[in-house]
Each structure stands twice: as structure tokens, then as C-alpha cells.
Specification:
There is one protein chain. This protein is an alpha+beta fold. The longest helix has 19 residues. Helices cover 32% and strands 21% of the residues. Strands 1, 2, 3, 4, 5, 6, 7, 8 and 9 form a 9-stranded mixed β-sheet that branches. A hairpin with a 6-residue loop joins strand 4 and strand 5.
């Protein structure tokens, strides 16, 4: 199992405990972390999407889901079942610049408390890259998203690391940080 995935998960869990102890204007709960997925479940998910996303697969082999509702505006990494049922999110996105636009198949692997989604690229040079999709920019009827997209990480592991940094900044009371959530 990748040390970087495990390191990010350790950071998230440690900071989650700090968030639960913070004095906030609302009663905060510690984030919850689901158990590992079984190998067959991971293989079925990746095969059904023809996905080449080893960092995401490694994460799923250690943790099924994360619910960090009380961290900033909320951070969620979906379970595989929840991920495949996010039908309101784009299934493909358009990336690149003219004249080299290309479609990338994506899966909504998480979201924030504002209804935005975190999309992972499933194939090609953008496999494992993660974008934040703003829910106020609905995909076209054919499921393609062209607007409201911001690339936030080049890999799923870098995405987890960014979330861990966000959580640490939140726990330290940093109000100047630009959070991925919200």
C-alpha cells in the first residue's frame, strides 16, 4: 500500500480529532472514516469504468469513505456505491485549450458541503487528476461538463494531501487559506 496514501490518511485522522475538540459556533463531530473495501469491490468498480487509477484504488483498499462534514464547509470522499450513483455530475469533462480540446471520462469520488463534486479522471494522460466541479454549472444533456471546473490536483494522492493540508489549516484557525471546500 502506498506510503503517501497512508500518510495522507494518518494526517486526516489526526487533524479530524483536533477539529472535534475545536470551539466552533456549532457542535463539531470528528470526521468518520469507513472501513476498507474488499478487493473484488475495487476490481468491479475499476473494471466497470475501465479506469486506471492506482492511487484511488490504494485509497479504497484502506478506507471506503470519509465524512468530514464539520471541517470548513464539509469534505466528503464517497464510498464506491455513492460514487456511481452521482448522476447529476458530469460523466465526461472537456479539458485543454483550443485546438487541443479533449474529453476525459470522470467519476465523482467526493464533494463538499456546498454541493460541488470532486471528479477523478479515469483514463489517458489525465487519469487520476482531480477537478472540482461547481454544481451551478450543470453538465450538458449528454453528460459532458465544460464549465465550472477547476483542476485541483494532478493525482488522487496529491488530492488527499491537499485535503489534509486544508484540514490542518482549518484546525489551526487559518481564515486566510483558500480551501478546496466551499
Amino acid at each position: 500500500m502506498s506510503n503517501t496514501v497512508l500518510t495522507a490518511l494518518r494526517r486526516l485522522k489526526a487533524t479530524g480529532e483536533e477539529v472535534a475538540a475545536m470551539e466552533l459556533p456549532y457542535p463539531a463531530s470528528a470526521p468518520s472514516f469507513g472501513p476498507a473495501c474488499c478487493d473484488a469491490e475495487i476490481e468491479e468498480l475499476l473494471a466497470s469504468y475501465r479506469a486506471a487509477v492506482p492511487g484511488y484504488a490504494t485509497f479504497l483498499s484502506a478506507c471506503r469513505r470519509i465524512d468530514g462534514a464539520d471541517v470548513h464547509n464539509g469534505y466528503f470522499i464517497y464510498s464506491p456505491l455513492t460514487a456511481v450513483t452521482q448522476l447529476h455530475t458530469p460523466r465526461r469533462i472537456v479539458v485543454g485549450d483550443e485546438p487541443r480540446l479533449r474529453e476525459v471520462p470522470v467519476l465523482a469520488v467526493g464533494g463538499d458541503g456546498c454541493g460541488n463534486a470532486f471528479l477523478i479522471g479515469l483514463d489517458g494522460p489525465e487519469a487520476e487528476a482531480v477537478w472540482k466541479w461547481n454544481h451551478e454549472h450543470p453538465p450538458r444533456e449528454d453528460g459532458v461538463g465544460r464549465t465550472g471546473l477547476v483542476k485541483i490536483a494532478d493525482s488522487f494522492v496529491a488530492f488527499l494531501d491537499r485535503l489534509a493540508t486544508d484540514w490542518e489549516r482549518f484546525a489551526s484557525g487559518d481564515t486566510t487559506w483558500t480551501y478546496v471546500s466551499g
